[in-house]
Design goal:
The protein has 476 residues and is an alpha/beta fold. The chain contains 15 helices and 13 strands. It has three domains: 246 residues, Aspartate Aminotransferase, domain 2, CATH 3.40.640; 106 residues, Aspartate Aminotransferase, domain 1 (Alpha-Beta Complex); 70 residues, no CATH class. It holds the Pfam family Pyridoxal_deC.
Length: 476
């Protein structure tokens, strides 16, 4: 392919994706609405795409930019002068490193545990899987916030970490960080606050007159915080910052190895070689927006959240699951319709909203990650939402065939076969007619999501792993 053909093909491929600008994608991407800043970030990524963050002595500009970005994060999060931080590839890597460093700091414990609310991000379960740390998930209260008494009671001699969210992704509420951090400190245990999604916007809430539960390093007992720059820092994907209260807490995060004849490996994160592009993009964007700019963006996004919450109150079939503390909103439906059909109807109207499955006896919901760019089109969004709900009510809730439900319930997720999976694909209308068994993805996903919704979490995981395996096959 010549260069022009490749560029054309890239544009054709990208046309199939969700839009990343315009404020109409309310998950996965975060839009400041500042086109010149976005262009600056992309230019910085391109300029540093070939730079290697492996060795800070070889690329000292990357070290300078990292220290600048970490310093800005430390100022936002009320970090003491002793605080140190590292730029990672995203929130999941920040969480993984927080868990790994907590585990390795207590190397004498042979069966380490971490106490997390049931609403903690799935990245903590990933860390548990990777690092052999048992994730003890404690059910949250009726307000969707961590149950302090139950989590405190779960702390024992093998506990290496207590986790809180600011806010939780699924429901957008902040856990009682002061009480959880105090309980952790009393037991001599680290306390990590997952502020990946809220950490770059919540610091501005009090300045705008909004009440926010304390959650930063101003809270005694908080030992580390993760905050993503590619969310409400509005930087290019993917950068996050993991901050520790002091360097002694961070030291177990580092990895060094001279156990081979090559260069002595020294890593601050899980990656060795890594492009300097995302870091440069984050540095450029944060410098361009600045603290005052972020406060203006925070004012816009909070205004959008308030307007959406007020608007939903007039849509009879919908309700807000929990009064949002930050920029995330969860919506529930009554018995006249279902969230999955509403998500499909919104997609057809040019809006992406994210379905969330039923969990722990609580029903499925619709998730909204509101961006600053959403404010300009809130009324259009609410109009589309009202129309989507009306069509979903007219359609009625999606019903999964009882025979399919029985089939799913009879399956063993640990022994799911290709034949089992093909049977479910056929039932969901996802199996193509080609001989290679290629997936035929539908334009509407309500029936598929409803099928997943009736599956137990372990079966849902097995089905999605099989689905990803089937999707991820080489083009030959």
């Amino acid at each position: 392919m010549n260069l022009d053909d490749i560029r054309t093909r890239l544009h054709e491929l990208q046309a199939q994706d969700l839009p990343v600008h315009g404020g109409r994608t309310l998950a996965y991407v975060y839009d400041s609405g500042l086109s010149e800043v976005d262009e600056l970030g992309r230019a910085a990524v391109a300029a540093y795409a070939g730079s290697n963050g492996l060795d800070p002595t070889a690329f000292p500009s990357l070290l300078q930019m990292e220290n600048d970005v970490v310093g800005m994060a430390a100022d936002l999060l009320d970090a003491p002068a002793s605080a140190v931080g590292t730029v990672t590839s995203g929130g999941t890597e920040s969480v993984l490193l927080a868990v790994q460093s907590a585990r390795d700091a207590r190397g004498e414990i042979t069966r380490p545990r971490m106490i997390i609310p049931s609403t903690a991000h799935a990245a903590f379960h990933k860390a548990a899987h990777y690092f052999g740390v048992e994730a003890v998930a404690i059910e949250v209260g009726d307000d969707y916030r961590a149950d302090v008494a139950a989590m405190t009671a779960a702390i024992d001699a093998d506990t290496v970490l207590v986790v809180a969210s600011a806010p939780s992704y699924a429901h957008g509420v902040i856990d009682p960080v002061p009480e959880l951090a105090a309980a952790a400190a009393a037991a001599g245990v680290r306390c990590h606050v997952d502020a990946c999604i809220g950490g770059w916007v919540l610091p501005f809430a009090p300045r705008l007159g909004r009440d926010v539960t304390p959650w930063t390093f101003a809270v005694d007992g908080v030992t580390s915080i993760s905050v993503d720059l590619h969310k409400y820092g509005y930087a290019p994907k993917g950068t996050s910052v993991l901050l520790h209260r002091d360097s002694a807490l961070r030291k177990p995060q580092f990895f060094a190895s001279a156990a081979w004849p090559g260069y002595t490996m020294l890593n601050a994160t899980m990656q060795s070689t890594k492009s300097g592009g995302p870091l440069a993009g984050a540095w450029a964007v944060t410098r361009a927006i600045g603290a005052d700019g972020y406060q203006r963006l925070a004012a816009d996004v909070f205004a959008a959240v308030d307007a959406i919450v007020d608007g939903v109150a007039s849509i009879g079939a919908l309700s807000v699951v929990a009064e949002p503390d930050s920029t995330l909103i969860a919506l529930a439906t009554d018995a006249t319709c279902d969230p999955f059909t509403i998500c499909d109807e919104m997609a057809e109207a040019g809006w992406f909203v994210q379905p969330q499955m039923a969990f722990a006896g609580r029903p499925a919901t619709i998730h909204l990650s509101v961006s600053a760019a959403t404010l300009a089109s809130v009324e259009e969004f609410l109009g589309a939402l009202r129309a989507a709900v009306d069509r979903a009510v007219a359609h009625g809730p999606v019903v999964v065939d009882p025979d399919v439900v029985a089939f799913i319930e009879a399956l063993d997720p640990a022994a799911l076969t290709d034949a089992d999976f093909d049977g479910l694909l056929a039932a969901a209308g996802l199996l193509g007619t080609s001989e290679d068994g290629a997936l035929a993805l539908p334009t509407r996903m309500a029936e598929v999501n409803a099928l997943l919704d009736v599956a137990a979490p372990a079966m849902r995981e097995a089905l999605l792993v099989a689905f990803l395996d089937r999707l991820s096959r080489p083009a030959r």
